Amino acid sequence: LHHCxxxxxxxxxxxxxxxxxxxxxxxxxxxxxxxxxxxPVAQVYRTELSADLSKELGAQxxxxxxxxxxxxxxxxxxxxDRLRWVEIKHGRxxxxxxxxxxxxxxxxxxxxxxxxxxxxxALDNIPGMVWAQMIATWGxxxxxxxxxxAAPWGMNQNSLGESPAEFKGxxxxxxxxxxxxxxxxxxxxxxxxxxxxxxxAAQMGILxxxxxxxxxxxxxxxxxHF
Length: 226
Fold this sequence. Notes:
Elements: H1 2-33, H2 77-105, H3 128-144, H4 185-215
């Protein structure tokens, strides 16, 4: 009888855990849907001064102009540009996160960090000094990767003059180009769409890796030290 009671209790705990994880995944998917692209044209209420956001970058197949939460229903171009930049930034961070997860999962480490595990387990094993170095690095990257003509973080027009940036997220700052200015507008839009889509995929990818690690079956997706 004692074994039956224990087995029943464990079954209830496992079922509750799986239910909680399913709810977490559904909530994350619902929250990320708004970032994927702007609302069917028929659902957008516009005034004569509202921008036509249905032709903006990101409104593409298969969803088209998709904004179920009505975040840009007023057609405010400035608000749309801000949300688009937030999406691009999250996508860039997610792409780095996916690469970092795969590299550390494969067993690649900096010298002296060979005993630090990958995934969430690393958080409890990183020395305090390494945390300090990481935070300092994040701060420097955040300060450097922005429009220096409107620093800090696009809140002020400084003495450098008018920004040469073509869009929010363009951080060349008149120094790095790699031939971008020599390309056609169609080529540029295609490259920006590729970055946007890969960022969206990376956001879903890192979310999936984290969820499966917490479920304990990430090894079924990624073979050990692949």
